[in-house]
Amino acid sequence: MTIESEQDLAGLKEIGRIVALTLREMCAYVRPGITTAELDEVGAAALARYGARSAPQVMYNFPGATCISLNNVAAHGIPNDRVIKEGDLVNIDVSAVLDGYYGDTAATVPVPPVSDEAERLARCAQNALAQALAVVRAGAQLNAIGLAVERTAAACGFEVIRNLPGHGIGRTLHEPPSVLNFYHPRASMRLTEGMVFTIEPFLSISASSVDKGDDGWALTTSDGSLAAQYEHTVVVTRGEPLILTQL
């Protein structure tokens, strides 16, 4: 989506604020002993309180209000009776719609005590997002984002999951363009002021791809290694991007 009016910007800001608040509330509830279904209930209640609807449910009839993915599940984990334990990496992805505008954000929460490697992976994914955000501005090439993510992952000794990109967003959950997390010479389109998309680096210990699990939803690393992701929805400006999902 490209913002065309003050109404567009206001609508995107509001849904961005809502998904960010929901994510923060859910992250605060992550602890050993809680199930992913109970954690999802926290998210569902928050979205309802703000008057928003779960985007995965609206768009795809997803079985939960949010996606909660543990350890080697990189994305689209279905909330269920699985109990969160010490040492887990818990990825929470919240996307929602309000008044026809969509927002999307995610974070990975390490449950102490975690291994040094798991902690480094989560921090590297978070830094990859920061490095990617730093190159976003009108006139830059889209593939500068992927290059920033790829270089950050490589410096940490980790892999980019190449078949999980970011995406355009606004009037639907997933729109063009695809925002790759690695450099591709053909992804050379120039960013223009007002463009709206997500940046969401997916990194893993050693896998460069994910496969769909038996439940038809969960995307697991091809070699079973740990994964981590952080995500923001952004608007391109002439200077630093407007981060809609940052509180």
Please outline what is shown here:
The protein is of the alpha+beta class and about 250 residues long.
Coarse shape: globular
Portion of residues within helices: 25-40%
Q: Look at the structure and give the mean pLDDT.
A: 98
What proportion strand?
Answer: 15-25%
Low-confidence stretches: none
The largest pleated sheet is described as: 4 strands, antiparallel
Alpha-beta classification: alpha+beta
C-alpha termini separation: 22 Å
Would you count the extended β strands for me?
15
List the helices and strands and how they pair.
Elements (H helix, E strand, L loop, with lengths): L5 H24 L6 H14 L3 E2 H6 L6 E4 L2 E3 L13 E10 L2 E10 L5 H18 L9 H14 L2 E2 L5 E3 L6 E5 L16 E4 L2 E3 L5 E3 L6 E3 L5 E3 L2 E4 L6 E2 L4
Antiparallel strand pairs: 1-4, 2-4, 3-12, 4-5, 6-10, 7-8, 9-14, 10-13, 11-12, 14-15
Helix pairs in contact: 1-2, 4-5
